[in-house]
Design brief:
Length: about 300
């Protein structure tokens, strides 16, 4: 059994929920190169060995079109229908429904819910998840308050933010084996968090604002770009954030997030499709866009985003 999952809290909890639902003892879980939306050679070698494959919280339908093995593809991102007959695609978006996280889709698919289902939602939409009765119900069953839920997500996410792919993959077993209180005290992840928070504050110190939108440029080896955008939009209440990491391990990153009240005005899917048409490695949802690119292409991508904003 091979589980390929996203590197963030939603992907990790989705993988853990799948393991629990299927009572798996013999499985391999693996994540793509952090920050890159593709299957690398390492993943492809594992696919060759696998008997059955689960792909969770990864907006990569194109990567499974040629797989000739039973594959369950579970996601909640905007995407086209997969044509490969070997692939069973579970995505409520295809039916016009909106789920807060892949963890919710996984839990509904298996009819198996617990606090990890809720953490996946908190990981993807932040404090807005606490407006969902099911999230509060699941957290309350474990005696987890809102503050602890947010901290748990930060700790789980810390592995991908410091760019440690191996630790991301190990995190699935950590959340399966430890109780929530033990995770909150997990020393390795808490040390990660201290370094990350310093880097985020440094990035936000370079903020520029125009007509309610924040524009931030910085350089960091940490994958903090989505965290910076979330903090600016969710906590600092800007209409949107365009964030650029100008030097991320030799590449550049661009992340564009908008507040919920602009979702109907700014068609994020149109921007994502335009970037993909032009050959850029971009993905996202109705309120967020992420792109990793060559440094020389930053101005071109920003120009496309700005054209839509006008």
């Amino acid at each position: 059994m091979l589980i390929i999952h996203h590197w963030d809290a939603d992907g990790i909890t989705s993988a853990a929920l799948t393991v629990k639902a299927l009572n798996l003892e013999d499985f391999v879980n693996i994540t793509p190169p952090i920050g890159e939306f593709r299957f690398d050679d390492r993943i492809k070698k594992y696919i060759e060995k696998a008997e059955k494959i689960y792909v969770l919280d990864l907006n990569l339908p194109q990567e499974v079109e040629d797989i000739e093995k039973e594959t369950i593809f579970i996601d909640h991102h905007i995407q086209k229908k997969i044509k490969n007959p070997y692939v069973k695609q579970i995505n409520p978006v295809l039916d016009g429904k909106d789920f807060p996280s892949a963890s919710f889709v996984v839990s509904e698919y298996f009819s198996n819910w617990d606090y990890l289902s809720a953490l996946g939602a908190v990981g993807d939409i932040g404090e807005r998840a606490f407006n969902i009765p099911k999230v509060l119900e699941l957290l309350n069953l474990e005696g987890i308050g809102k503050e602890d839920a947010l901290k748990l997500v930060q700790l789980i996410d810390s592995n991908y933010i410091i760019m440690d792919r191996e630790s991301v993959e190990k995190a699935v077993k950590v959340v399966l084996e430890l109780e929530p209180k033990e995770i909150l005290e997990y020393e390795e992840w808490n040390k990660n968090l201290e370094k990350i928070n310093d880097a985020i504050e440094n990035a936000i110190s370079n903020i520029k604002v125009k007509e309610g939108f924040a524009f931030i440029e910085f350089e960091s080896k940490f994958n903090i770009i989505s965290k910076v955008a979330r903090k600016v939009v969710w906590e600092m209440s800007y209409d949107g954030a365009i964030v650029v990491n100008k030097d991320f391990h030799g590449k550049a990153q661009i992340y564009f997030r908008i507040s919920p009240n602009l979702v109907d005005k700014i068609k994020m899917n149109d921007i994502i499709n335009t970037l993909k048409t032009k050959g850029f490695n971009a993905g996202g949802k109705k309120d967020v866009l992420g792109c990793i690119l060559e440094k020389d292409d930053v101005d071109e991508v920003l120009k496309i985003i700005n054209e839509y904003l006008r």
